[in-house]
Design goal:
With 117 residues, the protein is an alpha/beta fold. Helix content is 15%, strand content 31%. The strands form 2 sheets. A 5-stranded mixed beta sheet has the order 1-2-3-5-4, with no helix packed on it. Strands 6-7 form a two-stranded antiparallel sheet. Strand 4 and strand 5 form a beta hairpin. It is globular, with a radius of gyration of 16 Å.
């Protein structure tokens, strides 16, 4: 698990939260001192707020959509202790510059070659 505070907002990042059923209750109990919990494992985009106010986010996956209609990653801004501009981005969206950059760097399966110069 990783923890980070940005502009007063307390983040934790973990691999998984377990089954969907009961997720909010488990997260509230396990992370009482966190404002935003980012998790993965399922590759399924998720954005919810628990009864105690904990924000749960799963960015999905830019490379493996697992039963989802599209691949995704998540962008957001932290400003004055609050989340702003939270967006699930489809890396294949040719209209999004960020999506094009992700497609080129993260999805490429080719190994990066060192320059011979």
């Amino acid at each position: 698990m990783a923890r980070l505070e940005i502009e007063g907002l307390r983040f934790a990042v973990i691999h998984e939260t377990g089954p969907t059923s009961g997720r909010e209750t488990r997260a509230d109990a396990a992370f009482p001192d966190v404002d935003v919990l980012v998790f993965g494992h399922s590759h399924i985009p998720w954005d919810s707020t628990t009864p105690k106010g904990l924000r749960l986010l799963n960015p999905g996956s830019p490379t493996d959509r697992r039963r989802q209609p599209r691949c995704t990653f998540l962008t957001l801004t932290v400003e004055a202790g609050a989340l702003r501009d939270l967006t699930f981005v489809d890396p294949a969206d040719s209209c999004a510059t960020a999506g094009q950059e992700v497609r080129a760097s993260a999805i490429s399966r080719e190994p990066r070659r060192r320059s011979t110069r």
